[in-house]
Amino acid sequence: NNLLTIKDLYASVEEKQILKGLDLEVKPGEVHAIMGPNGAGKSTMGYVLSGREGYTVDSGSVVLGGEDLLDMETEERARAGLFLAFQYPVEIPGVSNLEFLKASVDAQREARGEEAISSADFLKEAKAACKKVDLPISFLKRGVNEGFSGGEKKRNELMQMLLLQPKLCILDETDSGLDIDALQVVAEGVNSQRSSDRSFIVVTHYQRLLDYIKPDFVHVLSNGKIVKSGDASLAQELEAQGYAWLQTEPTEDE
Ligand code: ADP
Ligand code: MG
Ligand code: MG
């Protein structure tokens, strides 16, 4: 039984087809790493799954927890348990982090038919989450991501993850990369939240994040589809060999 099933997914941005027959299956509790050359479509995959504006699905299907993900609005996808981290560092000045988090959690509980959590109980949970990710509790009062450093944004997203308890987390390490401290924060956060009912897709350009997060599967995404899959040792192989062996199929603009 898969948590996520992506079948023959084709998707475009600005009339340019980026995903070209993507297939991926993720079972509950699994950690999948997606690697691949710059421009392969790794980030596009995350955006398409999250329903980001401007990304058009041309064909194919995506099922999350038995439901048609592509049929859902962005907010519904989040409520269905999808969480996309790291390339959504939106700043929302004027809305406190605590308010934002509570609203997200409330919406999710409502969607699940659960009762709303009291403000006092939520504050307790949020403070505990701050402690876990090593953020001072003063961050709860600040505007969402307003003036946060790179590392603080990462910690804040991990805190969000802790509170939202998503079923599927997609982490996209930006090309600019994380410094070693932020990398360890992310890895510890992920490792502490790995469980039999939470899956991760970890997108990374380089192998180093996978020194700290041991994936069950590693996939190479190239030119919009997965061209190779293996276990964690594939990441080491790729680190040693690079992606030059993929150059047999050049993209149109190269
Ligand atoms: P990766 O994350 O693997 O480096 P991306 O998914 O960011 O790759 O990008 C894949 C391709 O899509 C690249 O050629 C990139 O230039 C293109 N692309 C991404 N976003 C846009 C956009 N908003 N408009 C036009 N092209 C885009
Ligand atoms: Mg890129
Ligand atoms: Mg990217």
From TrEMBL:
SMART domains per the UniProt record, alphabetical: AAA (SM00382)
UniProt keyword terms in alphabetical order: ATP-binding, Nucleotide-binding
Entry annotated with the keyword Protein biosynthesis: no
Family matches, as InterPro entries: AAA+_ATPase, ABC_transporter-like_ATP-bd, FeS-cluster_ATPase_SufC, P-loop_NTPase
Transmembrane segments: none
Annotated ranges, domain ABC transporter: 4-248
Keyword Amino-acid biosynthesis applies: no
Family, similarity comment: Belongs to the ABC transporter superfamily. Ycf16 family.
UniProt protein name: Fe-S cluster assembly ATPase SufC
